[in-house]
Design brief:
Layout (H helix, E strand, L loop, with lengths): L14 H4 L1 H11 L15 H13 L7 H5 L13 H4 L4 H11 L13 H19 L4 H6 L18 E7 L4 E5 L10 E4 L6 H16 L7 E6 L23 E2 L19 H17 L7 H17 L7 H11 L10 H12 L15 E4 L8 H20 L14 E5 L11 H10 L4 E7 L18 E4 L7 H8 L3 H12 L5 E5 L1 H6 L5 E6 L4
Parallel strand pairs: 3-8, 3-9, 4-6, 4-7, 5-6, 7-8
Antiparallel strand pairs: 1-2, 1-11, 10-11
Helix pairs in contact: 3-7, 10-11, 11-12, 12-13, 14-15
């Protein structure tokens, strides 16, 4: 008898919300009431909770009733259970056998073509029944403390296929973004959409898919989200975090506490020439993020002050106080007491105390959301936070080995997501360019979201030329040359795409159709209705 196929199983409506009580009870049992701030409390992925409840449900011997199963409501947004839920530790054959055993009296034909909806409801029923049973009396303790065979590893060694289910095409066929198959040249994603176009929901869907597919494997995809609008870090939206397999401990608020890393590089054991190059880059950045006109003398003085600062620390990471001290020392005597634009920027950064003096967190092996809404979006502090975070990520990236690969897929380690990215594209942001270049061979990628697609055609860098997936949502205005560049079209094809973009509604996007572009046949774009998540 064939094994039950678990492909395309749909979630029940409100699945995660209904499992929060059991999730909290298990985590309370695992964690101490008080723990050191240096250590994050243990949190369990949604898959682990679902799997535990699924097994607990299947363990119950009571007869199954079809009317109770049919009463289950499936996800209205066609949300699916990730394949890794069933393939973890190669347990799909075991699940198949248990389901057939429990449902034998109902004479279900598991291989019937239209069985998917019923299978989805059966699995949801078992999960809900298991959660309900585990919350009763001492069932949770009894279930968790059972002795039995424990597998040597709790993670699959196969690289997961990051085929993200983001919505449906116009013909109601599921729409996917394939991020890590060997045929995909890179995983950069650009999102352009005006206020109210559905950008935040799209980012949430991408994150939920990335984390859900990978978190229970040996190749989890972590993320760092720069939350300009404060939506993802808002306490009133705390339920969103469970979609991304994180909790509130992942939120970093620079206003409340310095970000847990030093923004400056260590040059211990490095050459003086490397410090000289870095000092020029850093000086240019400090000048650029303030948007003020600075003389060549001031810029050179700042670069020299950075070099002197590293000499004073013997090439260990410096602080803004070091730069200010040496910059002031290099000023003409009559100017030392005055604040020029560079000293003003340095003092603002010192007062704000945005960064720790040493690294206290691993930005790649954990997931974080940086709360940014407390800073003016175009202000010096917001730009400094993003600039130095990206610079820090580059430093970490350089030290990582090359990404793993198997017969089908390559490893993706980490995504950096910058919402409202246009504020970081209007100057020569070298760390951002380097992040895109360095990340390709290290399994590291980026999602940039802006309000208008023009923002990605920066005079300093062509982001469209380096992105696998430009996702175009509703636009306030359209630039004809940008549309032609993105889709490689002219004439009637151009007019068709322009009209399609103009007619987009909230939650809809246009994406390139590579097959049609390569063959020169059919529509050069596809329209997708994004799943509603938040």
């Amino acid at each position: 008898m064939a094994t039950i196929s678990f492909n395309g199983i749909r979630q029940a409506e409100g699945l995660y919300e209904n499992l929060q009580a059991i999730k909290q009870r298990i985590e309370n049992r695992l964690n101490l009431e008080v723990h050191s701030p240096q250590y994050k409390p243990c949190t369990l992925s949604n898959h682990k909770i679902m799997r535990l409840c699924f097994l607990a449900g299947l363990a119950q011997k009571e007869p199954r009733r079809m009317e109770a199963i049919e009463a289950i409501t499936l996800s209205k947004s066609n949300q699916k259970i990730f394949d890794t839920f069933f393939t973890w530790n190669d347990l799909s054959t075991f699940y198949s056998a248990l389901l057939k055993l429990r449902y034998q009296p109902l004479n279900i034909d598991w291989e019937k073509e239209n069985i998917l909806v019923l299978k989805s409801k059966i699995i949801a029923y078992e999960i809900f029944q298991g959660a309900q049973w585990l919350l009763q009396e001492n069932h949770l303790e009894e279930f968790l403390l059972q002795k039995g065979y424990l597998p040597q590893s709790n993670k699959s060694t196969k690289i997961p296929s990051l085929n993200l289910h983001i919505g449906v095409y116009e013909d109601n066929i599921d729409a996917y973004l394939n991020l890590n198959s060997k045929e995909i040249p890179n995983t950069q994603i650009l999102i352009a959409g005006t206020t109210g176009s559905g950008k935040s929901n799209l980012i949430a869907v991408l994150l939920q898919q990335l984390r859900g597919i990978s978190v229970d494997t040996a190749y989890p995809v972590n993320f760092l989200l720069l939350d300009y609008k404060g939506e993802f870090s808002d306490p009133s939206n705390e339920q969103w975090l469970s979609y991304f397999e994180v909790d509130r401990s992942c939120i970093l608020d620079p206003i409340q506490q310095p970000l847990p890393f030093s923004p400056f590089r260590s040059f211990i054991g490095k050459s003086q020439n490397e410090i000289n190059l870095y000092s020029t880059e850093l000086a240019n950045a400090l000048c650029a993020i303030d948007n003020t006109r600075i003389s060549a003398n001031m810029s050179n003085r700042l670069s020299e002050a950075i070099i002197h600062a590293y000499k004073s620390t013997q090439n260990a990471p410096i602080h803004f106080e070091h730069i200010l001290k040496h910059y002031t020392a290099l000023q003409p005597e009559k100017e030392k007491e005055k604040d020029d634009s560079i000293k003003s920027v340095l003092k603002q950064l010192i007062r704000s105390n945005l960064f720790a003096t040493e690294d206290q967190a691993d930005l790649i092996r954990n997931s974080y959301i940086i709360k940014m809404d407390g800073f003016p979006k175009e202000g010096t502090l917001a730009k400094a936070i993003v600039y130095f975070i990206i610079s820090k990520l580059n430093t970490i990236y350089e030290q990582l080995p090359k990404q793993a690969a198997d017969e089908e897929n390559v490893e993706i380690r980490h995504f950096t997501i910058i919402d409202e990215a246009h504020y970081m594209l209007d100057f020569d942001n070298r760390p951002l360019r380097e992040l895109i270049a360095v990340g390709r061979n290290k399994g590291l990628s980026i999602i940039l979201a802006t309000q208008n697609m023009d923002s990605f055609k920066s005079e300093y860098f062509d982001f469209y030329a380096n992105a696998q997936y430009p996702l175009i949502m509703k636009q306030q205005s359209m630039n004809d040359s940008i549309i032609k560049d993105i889709f490689g079209v002219s004439g009637r094809d151009f007019l068709e795409i322009k009209e399609a973009i103009a007619s987009l509604q909230k939650g809809e996007l246009i994406i390139k159709n590579p097959a049609a572009i390569a063959l020169g046949l059919g529509r050069k774009y596809k329209k997708i209705k994004v799943r509603h998540l938040i």
